[in-house]
Each structure stands twice: as C-alpha cells, then as structure tokens.
Amino acid sequence: MVGLAELYRQQVEYNYGKSKYIKQFFRYPYSFVKARYYMFFAALLVWFLQRTDIDPNSVTKVYIALGIVSAIFLASGHSILMLLALFLIFSKGVVDWADGHLARLKKKQSLSGHILDIFGARVHSIAFFTALGFYQFQLHNEIWFLYLVCAYPISYGLLMHRFRYKYLFEHVQHAHSQI
Q1: H-type alpha helices, the chain
Q2: What is the pLDDT of residues 107-162, one digit of tens each?
Q3: Distance between alpha carbon 151 and the CA centroid of its chain, in Å?
Q4: Which partner for 102 in 56, 88, 89, 94 could form a disulfide, CB atoms 3.0-4.6 Å apart?
Q5: What's the pLDDT tens digit per position in 80-90?
C-alpha cells in the first residue's frame, strides 16, 4: 500500500509539468490553491481506493454522475442544494484527478478510460450551463433562457461529433510517431 505522502508527491510530480498554475502562486493564486486542493484530496481518495477492486473507469463514472447531480441541485433554486452544487462543481477536479492517478497506480490506463474522462468533462460543462439556464429562467421568468438551455447542448453535441474524429486522429498520429 502506497502512503498518502507518496501519493501526494506523485500527484505533484505528474501535474507539475502539465500546468503552470502549480508553480506560480503569485501569478495565479486561485488556480495554484485549487490545484493543491485537487491534488491533496485526489491523493487521499486514491489512498482509500488503492486496495479495493474499484477500477478507474468506475471513479470516472462517479465523476460524470456528480456533474449531473450538481446540475440538478443548481437548477433546483433551493439555497442549500445550490450551495451543495457549487461545492460539488468546485470539487469535481478531485475525482477527475483521482481516476487517472488510480489508473496509473493500478496500471490500468486505457484509451477508453481517457475518452471517458474527456466525455465526463463535457458532461460537466453541458450540465453546468444548462442548469444555469434553468436557474435564470426561474429567477427572471424569461422564456429566452429556455431557448438557450436547448441551444447549448445541441451546439455542443454538434461540436463533439467533429471533436471525436479530431481527437482520435491526433491520438493515432501520436501513437504512430512513438514507434
């Protein structure tokens, strides 16, 4: 079993090269603190999950479900549920960063897991903006917010069709260049 301190060190090491926010507190204080929050709690989550039979894709599916639940809470208009939704939206990165770390730790990295992770991020985005539209409709009773609620997911879906082919092409091209 890998200790929590080592898991946190792995998180920092893995993400250090990928993000300028982790290195520059004075330039990006919010993002720096948020990344540290994600890394610590992702390491804590991985510490709990490392000896279980839970696979990384299941963690990603929980991440996707949290996006949908947080959108429902945000759209509800109830103060407590909306605060809980904001906490879930802010904390989503913990689960997102934990699934990849767990996959690397258990040596279960896969293309399908990576695509599921990207899909989860898109679900979060669509759910968040859709929920904001419903919330604004409830707040102002303006019908055009409902039009935006419908237009955003449709537009995003059309872009995802193009993104799918572009992403897979780049992945295959990168894999081929490694040979």
Answers
A1: 4-16, 29-49, 56-76, 79-105, 111-140, 144-178
A2: 999 988 988 898 898 889 889 988 988 888 888 888 888 888 888 777 777 776 66
A3: 23
A4: 56
A5: 999 999 999 99
In one letter, which amino acid is 11?
Answer: Q
- Name the DSSP class of 66: H
Measured between alpha carbons, how far is 75 from 111 in angstroms, rounded to an integer?
33
User: Residue 139: CA atoms inside 13 Å, Cβ hemisphere, count?
Assistant: 13
d(CA 2, CA 105): 9
Q: What pTM did the predictor assign?
A: 0.82
**CA separation for the pair 114, 100 (Å, rounded):** 8
Which amino acid, 45?
A: L
